[in-house]
What does this fold into?
Amino acid sequence: MEKRVIFKNKVLPYFLVAPQIAITLVFFIWPALMAIYQSVQQEDPFGLSTEFVGLENFSYIFTDPIYLNSIKVTMVFSLSVAAISMCTALLLAVMADRVIRGATTYKTLIIWPYAVAAVAAAVLWYFLFNPTVGMISFFLKKMGVDWNFALKGGQAMLLVILASSWRQIAYNFLFFLAGLQAIPKPFIEAAAIDGASPWKRFWTIVFPLLSPTVFFLLVMNLVYAFFETFGVIHAITEGGPNEATNTMVFKIYHDVFEAVDLGGSAAQSVVLMVLVIALTVIQFRYIERKVHY
Amino acid sequence: MKRWGLILLAIVMLFSFSATSAQAVTEINWWFAHGGRLGEKVQSIVSDFNSMQNKYKVVATYKGNYSDTMMAGIAAFRSQTPPHILQVFEVGTASMMAAKGAIKPVYEVMAEAGLPWTPDAYLSTVTGYYTTSDGKMLSMPFNSSTPVLYYNVEAFKKAGLDPDKPPRTWSEVEAYAKKLVAAGYGGGFSTAWISWIHLENFSAWHNAPFGTKANGFEGLDTEFVFNSPLHVKHVQNLADWQKDKVFVYGGRRNKGNAKFSSGEVAMYTESSAGYAGFKKTCKFPFKTSMLPYYKGAAGAPQNTIIGGASLWVMEGHSDAEYKGVATFFNYLSSPAVQADWHQFTGYLPITTDAYYLTKGQGVYDEKPGMETALKQMTLNKPTANSRGLRFGNFVQMRAIMYDTLEAIFTGEVTAQEGLDDAAQKGNRLLRKFEKANK
It folds into this structure.
């Protein structure tokens, strides 16, 4: 069944993949190598004095309570973002899949948030929930909630999780909907004729057939939560209050772009890189086995 | 299509012609960090300079916020294309100072240029922050401000307080705040830049050290001592005052400004440069006064220290270009330019002449709030504790301060435990900086 394209020319295939390889080398591999190199150096911002310090930067960060806390925060944050955005998106996709009239309008509205820039979205959330002038915090206070995320770590965490998930829901929705529409209708109709309830049909037929999409999105969402959320945190909480939202990637951003600590932040980047590689390997080795293509 | 090509060619030729004819003019690049109206003001200062003489042409480029601008300068230096002048915020001072070989001290630039230059003309409380302990100016202060107390005149009247008698001590603040809360306000006072105002300036204002070695001026082997009984007392007071809403925490940086402008709290400590912003956002009359102090504390009130940014000259340019930089700095320091900048922005003037010029123009009679900051800065001759701060990795220290204070305000730790812990974490950063800059 396998289809193979045979190239007669030996050079052409290499030539065709060359741009992709060049981009990967320049934008991914080379910076990664630089980070590893930088992480074993102690260097001033201007590069005037560079000293090889071995693993000192690593021993510094692993004895730093602020860094250790950020690992914990990252775990809670990433898992919550992945869980919330995927569950909500799946629910919305299942609903939208059933809609017949005005389906395009629904879909457009749900996909819309993805077009909003991360920082613009974060500022929007910040103003809605601002303890002094926010509209939603006004109602929360009316309801007797003591809303003040400038001081309450739990509330701050909740807010950045919601703001980060919100955007990702649109992305997940797109994939879930495509996945759902790829499921052959006769399967579901046959089950319906056999008297299976919608709930049963979803879990025994739809969900297993959707598992490749779920798996793909799990990887993508974790990567998103790990790497791409610092803009949201930067705009809303700046890692506070009391380190409650100080994720690893925000700390790296802060340490290099605000504090210009090159060695320390490079070491943190290397740790984050190793962590994400490990997570992805685990996902592919153990979770992928349960996926049916 | 052909005709378009010809026109394009003509334009290119025209440009290359003007470029060659402009080569006689020495170009000076200045990277700055002011957006919006301040940025336009910077450009107008520069274009005035350019039209005044024809030897030098200053090109001012906006590079984003303070951190972005500093990063841009560092990256440019590393790729051997640094600008001549780089604007760096005050917490980056120690990093810039330690970068010998990347920066050229301003006193050297001025001396080599051979232009008439009198260091005494500058306000020492402003330049002191950027001067070595033996009086050599390293960078040129550009935009400097200092924290003051803003208060809502309408609220004072409502609570039966005299708007002409602002609180002078912290116990008066407490008493006033209680009256304001009783009159229906959401809180007594709040603050922006809490570390800068309630710890760094608090130390200088009470003539107490923030760190050893003259706050880091006399060596990299400095250590933080902001966990003294006086500091602990103040921070614990802030924490305790939350119960009666005497004090309300507004968040990091100046995110709490809306608490004052919306009328939620009636007193607010914020940079003197925030004056213009409040003038625009507050729908009520307000005034400013000097920061409160603790009455029993020996040496209080001393003088406050500045925040803001200064201009650093970067290495790697020719003598002729440095002469241009010196000429431009002389122009920047001239009373007319300084007085104009001061009155337009609310930043402090850097020379005494500019101060007297503004005073003579009667500006302070019209806007007495503008003079508060200056009076407070120059209240006493600066001591080793009130000259400024010079600590490495200080940007990270500020982040630690926010976290620590937030932990104290939620009651997770006491002021003593929190400040002890912050000092310890900070000292680790200082040792790291010392090691990297040996």
